[in-house]
Structure formats: structure tokens, C-alpha cells
Write a structure and sequence with these properties.
The protein is mainly alpha-helical. It has one domain. It has 13 helices and no strands. The longest helix is centred in the last third of the chain and has 33 residues. It is globular, with a radius of gyration of 19 Å. The relative contact order is 0.20.
């Protein structure tokens, strides 16, 4: 095995773990939080893994071997070097200390040009702003009919069924965006054997994340009002899925789903605080500011990586 192949494998494994442990909690976090007392963790993991394999197989079939749904059209395949594999290693470190870093910025910045990175940033900022605005307006309306501080839906079984269906839909839209952060280390058209390998590795990692109940990033989800409740989780996932679907169709530039997710939760918290007099705004702003500060940390690290690669390592032939 040559060094380039070694770096590709190491980078892929590190990116797979980092992306699934960091970003998938955005998609599955409310699902884990609201179902962990009703179902065994391995049942939830099995369902998520089955949907994952079906989506990867579908994407591979309809896109001629491309499992990224076109997200890497602007980032051609290049030979992986040691500094490419360092990006997910840094992401892994930040993930372990509970920082909701954008894997899109941190991983793809090592491969993308400064122009593509700029477009990724613009699209992600749009996603954050749109998600926050939509969430605020919708939850102002929702708060008039539902008190999300209490889990007392009139049809609990129907809400749980709706949540499972919504989570599957969200899982598809999220994978359509974030598989690019893993597959960037691989050829753009995968042979069938490599596809099966990707499915196996991602399934193993998913089982670990469910066993660990979402890990440290899950605290971001649990800190928000009512996310353990099936009804609230269903509404969050449904809106999040449609926002991601819109940006999936908007263009093929990758974007940070982390920014969209945090924007959604922030807009929601502000709306609940606005409509609930018992819920103080002074409690909300530190939460929102803390999340946003963590995202900025990830962005600064990503910019540092791309500048180092393009202006220091590559010019010197390292």
C-alpha cells in the first residue's frame, strides 16, 4: 500500500467517524432523545442503518456510482496527502470536546479552492438565517396551540409514527448533503465493493453513536426546550428536512447542515421565549451565543486549514 492510499483510508475512516458522531446527531439527536426510553438502542440503530444503506444504494444507482448526490461536482478528486487526513483528525478532536463544528467547512476546506469555500460560506450563512427566521415565525404560531414544555399530545401513537417517518425523510435529505464530507476521500464513482465497504463502516459507527446515546454533541439537542418529546422532535425534524431539501435543489455547492440546524434551534428558542412569559430571554441568549461562538471556532479553524494548504504546504511541495 502506497502512502497516498494509506492517507485516503485514514482520512475516510476519520471523516466517517467525525461526520457521523458530529453531524448525524443533528438529524438523529431528537430521534434518540425522544425514543431512548421506549426502544432499545440497537433497535433504533438498526432502523437508522437500514435507511442509510438504502439511501446510499439509491444514490449510487441513480448517480452512476456517485453517493454524494452531486455535492462534489465543484471539488474534483485529487490524490490525498497527509494534510488532507489531518482535517478530520482536528474535527474528531473538536467533536470529542462537544463543539458543534461544521464538518463541511472543516473537511472540505482541505480539498476546496478558496472560491468554492467562499460560496460554501455564503450558502451556509443563508441557511442559518433562513432556518432561524422560518423557525421563529412558525414557532410563534405553534406556541399559540401547543405548549412544548409539556409532552401531552392527544394522539401519542400517531405522533410517534409521524416522527419515525419524518426522521427517515430527514435522514435522506441530510445524507444528500453530508455524505460529501466522507466521500471526498474516495473516487467520485465507487465500484460496488467499495460501496459495500462504506455501508459497513458507516453502519458500525452508527451503532456506536446509538450505544453512546449521541455522544457529547447530543447535549446541544438536549439543552433545548422539549427536544425529548416526540411531538416537538417531529415538528423540528419535519421543518429541518424541508429546509435541507430546498438547499439541496438550490445548487450543488456543499453547505453546512450544522449551521442550518443551529439556526433552526435558535429561532425556535427565541419564539418560545417570546410567547412564554415564564421563559426568560436572559436564559435564551447565552445558549444561542454559546452555540454561535462554537460554530465560529470551527469556521476559523477551517479557514486556517485552507489558507495553510493553499499558501504554505502546496507552494512548498509538501
Amino acid at each position: 500500500m502506497d502512502l497516498i492510499s494509506f492517507y485516503s483510508i485514514v482520512g475516510f475512516i476519520l471523516a466517517s467517524y467525525s461526520v457521523i458522531s458530529n453531524d448525524s446527531v443533528q438529524t438523529l439527536g431528537t430521534f434518540i432523545a425522544s425514543n431512548s426510553t421506549k426502544f432499545k438502542w440497537y433497535i433504533l440503530a438498526s432502523c437508522a442503518s437500514l435507511v442509510l444503506c438504502l439511501i446510499l444504494g439509491y444514490g449510487w444507482y441513480v448517480n452512476a456510482g456517485d453517493i454524494t448526490f452531486g455535492r462534489l461536482n465543484k471539488i474534483p478528486f485529487i490524490e490525498v496527502q497527509w494534510y488532507h487526513a489531518m482535517a478530520p483528525a482536528i474535527l474528531l478532536l473538536l467533536t470529542r470536546i462537544g463543539i458543534p463544528v461544521s464538518t463541511t467547512f472543516l473537511v472540505l476546506s482541505a480539498f476546496a479552492s478558496t472560491l468554492v469555500l467562499e460560496k460554501m460560506l455564503i450558502k451556509s450563512v443563508m441557511g442559518y438565517g433562513m432556518a432561524a427566521a422560518i423557525a421563529y415565525v412558525l414557532w410563534v404560531v405553534i406556541s399559540k396551540f401547543i405548549n412544548e414544555k409539556f409532552d401531552r399530545p392527544t394522539h401519542p401513537k400517531s405522533w410517534r409514527t409521524a416522527q419515525w417517518l419524518t426522521t427517515g425523510f430527514l435522514w435522506f435529505t441530510w445524507l444528500s448533503h453530508d455524505m460529501a464530507n466522507i466521500a471526498v476521500f474516495l473516487p467520485r464513482q465507487l465500484p460496488i465493493g467499495m460501496l459495500i465497504g462504506v455501508m459497513v463502516i458507516c453502519t458500525v459507527l452508527l451503532f456506536y453513536i446509538f450505544y453512546d446515546r449521541g455522544g457529547k454533541i447530543q447535549k446541544i439537542v438536549l439543552s433545548k426546550t422539549g427536544t425529548r418529546y416526540v411531538r416537538s422532535a417531529t415538528i423540528i425534524d419535519f421543518i429541518y428536512a424541508f429546509i435541507l431539501l430546498y438547499f439541496k435543489q438550490y445548487n450543488d455547492i456543499p453547505m453546512s447542515t450544522t449551521w442550518v440546524f443551529v439556526g433552526l434551534l435558535c429561532g425556535r428558542e427565541l419564539a418560545i421565549a417570546t410567547m412564554n412569559k415564564e421563559y426568560k430571554l436572559g436564559y435564551v441568549f447565552p445558549i444561542i451565543g454559546k452555540d454561535f461562538l462554537k460554530m465560529l471556532v470551527g469556521l476559523l479553524v477551517s479557514v486556517a486549514i485552507v489558507l495553510t494548504i493553499h499558501y504554505i504546504l502546496i507552494p512548498n511541495g509538501l
